[in-house]
């Protein structure tokens, strides 16, 4: 027992990992010629490790143990981190409570940060050894990390469960890996929080509740997606030309460009010739950006000077000089003032911009006003962000998958059948995959494919294999995008303002899943054909059942099941309140609801058990929910394929799903209409009435067809209104 409690003598070296090659032990590969990372190093730099995901920030690739001032605790942290990177090491594998799978570098970096914080906290409290750690100190540290304090030490908030789990995990790891440590160990009998896991201590959600990632609010999603689609389709081709102009101007302005002179005398002749060309072409002289003008004013220039805003440096390089020298001004001022008076001054980029139709289709305007270089670069960046938004919103790709996209990721379009084109993107799946990720392909719709093409054309490095977006902070880029849309530049183009509201890539992925499952007539369906997205996602699933799109489709299917149960329960409650369905399938659905209601009626039953809560009702409704399909203006209860009108019309009576796009719900015996569908039918009737009024008298066939369509819409609306006010028969109540 005495030997178990004792801490081994410490000579500054690890008893387990002395002189170990960290990457070799962890199974990480470094390029040839790269310095090896030794266990004794105080900084472990994994920057050059082969296969690290692009998403992994550079700061996360460097483990700095020097922030732990106590050399014994620094060794403890090194031993623990390497044990988590190399769980199959013989000394680690025999520990009963050690991790059996390798932790990701990001996870290990987070553990190191928390250990550094914990050891600093122990030092501040006067604790000099882990042997002094007891349950009281463990509880105190958890409380320290749990609450947010103001400058006076008063509690003003509470940290999230992830922070609490990190705090608890420090102590749990020190207990679980105790036998591995050389320099210092916690007491052998320490069992903080009764041996509970860090997740239980932190009260982490168990995952069976609703997904905590909320979708993007429709009030934000609609104008955001509309603006992104407008920028990629209408401004995209012009932004490519603007990006080329910027690159060309940068090559001319670079000090590394050869061929420039560096004269001491004023190049009077060269400037006279250059300014003559400006005057002959009636081209304004280049204009300085406002911050350069402010610098000139601070240097003593007069606000009335006609040359105050002239970009003399640009003119000097166009004249063959490397820069404009101040001593030239007396000799050149007169000629420059003449040119300013003749042609004026204007921003260099975006001159003579092509006209486009504004987003609100109200007018034709130049796609951009003249811009300074910084403004032009920013505008190109806004268009790239728009392409990123379209890609993320309509494909459901995760941030890690977007960052792995490279130039050349677009696969050649395929046409498996005439008139149907399949578009694919190649990237990598990072989440849940081994180091280096797994190659995968996404089947996407054409707007997404074109958005990626635009991003490639805007890229400065056109070589195949270059990162398309690289590592980016989406929330920052989105904020810039929203600010531009809401600025005078965006409003000038007729874009609807984007309200304040959180948007990130996780929220966009969840929005896509919910739109596909719950809202076939929602925002995405209005801006991008939602059925095409669903088909592309299904194609991607069929192409690689274990791939990323399979996970997205599985999420959509889960939402569809929840949606169907909610809809069936809602309609059952409506039935109980006397709001009945309408349409050809109404009688069948009403009889089904009556049978369920009869099973729930326990007034004549001698059994003490009752079934009145929603869970019991849902169990009875599940079978009917499994055959529910949403149409744009009806519900399809696909209980019997042989009775489905759409399958009869298509000649596929044995299909296992209805052809909702061919649905004639006014005649199909499995279709019902509900108050939820009334606005769709009422709007259809109103539009048809308008078309009837615009038809000429000679178009009798078209008039008869529209008249029948109009009368059918009115009949459906009347049936919905009548069913909503009828009470169920007594024998069905």
Shape: flat
The class by helix and strand makeup works out as mainly alpha
How many strand elements?
14
Helix content: 40-55%
Strand content: 5-15%
Based on CA atoms alone, the radius of gyration comes out at 35 Å
- Quaternary status of these chains? single chain
Distance between the termini: 76 Å
Major sheet strand order: 9-10-11
Which stretches are poorly predicted, pLDDT < 50 over at least 5 residues?
1-5, 604-611, 728-733
Overview of this protein structure:
The protein has 27 helices and 14 strands. The protein is mainly alpha-helical and 733 residues long. Helix 3 packs antiparallel against helix 5 (105-124), helix 9 packs across helix 14 (373-395) and helix 14 (373-395) runs antiparallel to helix 16. The longest helix is centred in the first third of the chain and has 36 residues, at 218-253. It is flat. The N and C termini lie far apart (76 Å). The relative contact order is 0.06.
């Amino acid at each position: 027992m005495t030997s178990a409690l004792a801490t081994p003598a410490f000579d500054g070296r690890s008893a387990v990992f002395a002189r170990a090659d960290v990457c070799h032990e962890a199974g990480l590969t470094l390029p040839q010629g790269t310095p090896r990372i030794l266990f004794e190093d105080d900084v472990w730099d994994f920057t050059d490790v082969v296969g690290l995901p692009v998403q992994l920030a550079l700061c996360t690739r460097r483990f700095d143990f020097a922030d732990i001032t106590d050399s014994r605790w620094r060794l403890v942290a090194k031993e623990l981190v390497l044990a988590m990177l190399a769980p199959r090491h013989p000394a680690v594998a025999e520990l009963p409570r050690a991790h059996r799978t390798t932790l990701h570098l990001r996870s290990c970096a987070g553990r190191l940060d928390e250990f550094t914080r914990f050891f600093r906290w122990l030092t501040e409290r006067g604790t000099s050894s882990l042997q002094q750690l007891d349950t009281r100190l463990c509880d105190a540290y958890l409380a320290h990390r749990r609450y947010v304090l103001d400058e006076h030490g008063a509690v003003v908030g509470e940290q999230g469960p992830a922070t609490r789990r990190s705090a608890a995990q420090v102590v749990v790891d020190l207990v679980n890996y105790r036998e591995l440590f050389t320099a210092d160990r916690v007491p052998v009998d320490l069992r903080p929080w009764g041996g509970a896991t860090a997740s239980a201590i932190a009260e982490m959600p168990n995952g069976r509740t609703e997904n905590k990632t909320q979708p993007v609010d429709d009030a934000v999603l609609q104008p955001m997606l509309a603006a992104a689609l407008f920028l990629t389709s209408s401004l995209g081709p012009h932004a490519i030309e603007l990006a080329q102009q910027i690159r060309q101007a940068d090559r001319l302005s670079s000090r590394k460009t050869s061929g420039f002179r560096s004269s001491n005398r004023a190049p009077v002749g060269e400037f006279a010739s250059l300014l003559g060309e400006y005057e002959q072409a009636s081209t304004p002289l280049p204009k300085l950006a406002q911050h350069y003008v402010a610098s000139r004013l601070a240097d003593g220039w007069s606000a009335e000077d006609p040359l105050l805003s002239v970009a003399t440096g640009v003119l000097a390089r166009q004249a063959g000089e490397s820069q404009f020298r101040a001593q030239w001004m007396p000799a050149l001022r007169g000629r420059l003032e003449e040119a300013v008076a003749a042609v004026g001054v204007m921003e260099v980029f975006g001159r003579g911009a092509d006209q486009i139709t504004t987003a609100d289709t109200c007018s034709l305007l130049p796609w951009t006003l003249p811009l300074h270089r910084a403004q032009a670069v920013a505008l190109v960046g806004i268009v790239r962000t728009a392409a990123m938004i379209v890609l993320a919103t309509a494909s459901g790709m995760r941030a890690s998958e977007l960052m792995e996209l490279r130039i050349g990721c677009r696969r050649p379009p395929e046409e498996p059948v005439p008139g149907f084109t399949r578009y694919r993107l190649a990237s990598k799946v990072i989440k849940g995959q081994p180091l280096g990720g797994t190659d995968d392909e996404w089947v996407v719709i054409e707007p997404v494919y074109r958005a990626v093409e635009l991003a490639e054309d805007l890229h400065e490095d056109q070589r195949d294999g270059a990162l398309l977006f690289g590592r980016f902070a989406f929330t920052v880029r989105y904020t810039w995008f929203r600010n531009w849309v809401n600025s005078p530049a965006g409003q000038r183009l007729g874009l609807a303002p984007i309200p304040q509201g959180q948007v990130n890539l996780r929220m966009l992925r969840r929005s896509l899943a919910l739109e596909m499952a719950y809202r076939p007539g929602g925002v995405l369906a209005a801006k991008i054909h939602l059925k095409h997205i669903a088909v592309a996602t299904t194609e991607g699933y069929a192409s690689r059942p274990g791939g990323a799109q399979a996970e997205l489709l599985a999420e959509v299917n889960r939402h569809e099941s929840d949606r169907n149960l909610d809809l069936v329960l809602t309609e059952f409650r409506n039935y109980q309140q006397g709001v009945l369905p309408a349409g050809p399938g109404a009688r069948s659905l009403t009889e089904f609801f009556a049978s369920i209601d009869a099973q729930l009626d326990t007034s004549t039953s001698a059994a003490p058990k009752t079934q009145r809560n929603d869970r019991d009702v849902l169990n009875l409704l599940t079978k009917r929910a499994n055959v529910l399909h949403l149409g744009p203006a009806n519900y399809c209860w696909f209980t019997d394929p042989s009775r489905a009108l759409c399958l009869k019309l298509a000649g596929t009576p044995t299909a296992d799903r209805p052809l909702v796009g061919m649905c004639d719900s006014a005649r199909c015996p499995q279709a019902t209409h509900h108050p939820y569908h009334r606005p769709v039918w009422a709007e259809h009737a109103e539009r048809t009435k308008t078309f009837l009024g615009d038809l000429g008298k000679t178009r009798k066939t078209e008039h008869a067809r529209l008249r029948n369509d109009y009368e059918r819409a009115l009949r459906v609306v009347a049936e919905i209104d009548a069913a909503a006010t009828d009470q169920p028969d007594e024998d069905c109540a």
